[in-house]
Amino acid sequence: MSSTSSRNAFEDGKYKSDLLTIDSSSRCCKTTLSSTPSPPKQLLVATPVDEGEYPAVMLLHGYLLYNSFYSQLMLHVSSHGFILIAPQVQFTLSGVHDATISWVLIL
After folding, report:
1. Strand, helix or coil for residue 92
2. What sections of the protein cross the membrane (predicted)?
């Protein structure tokens, strides 16, 4: 692959990105369906600013960490044309409290 056709993944991409925080009390989806539930925990979304269709990636953060710890990484990947969704996953001694993951998967 020639150097002129390849891009460095460590450099910012060509898309300007924005980071959105969606709280459990707010509606996150632009839909006419009133049955769409709000997320059970905070949701962090990094998305290109320009309208268009982009592939979506779910980012599950590390054990006992906050999704916001990954905000710079999310913005960087989003600048390459991806929408990143990072639910705040609640970990307990008995395992992952998966209500948030289940909520994301039903949308």
Report:
1. strand
2. none
3-state secondary structure of 21: strand
70 burial via Cβ count (<10 Å: 0-12, 13-18, 19+): buried
* pTM of the shown model: 0.69
Which one, of 45, 57, 39, lies nearest residue 99 by Cα?
A: 39
Collapsed DSSP state (helix, strand, coil) of residue 20: strand
Task: Give the pLDDT confidence of 45-97 residue by residue, as tens digits.
Answer: 999 999 999 999 999 887 778 888 999 999 999 999 999 999 887 765 555 55
DSSP element (H, E) containing 33: none
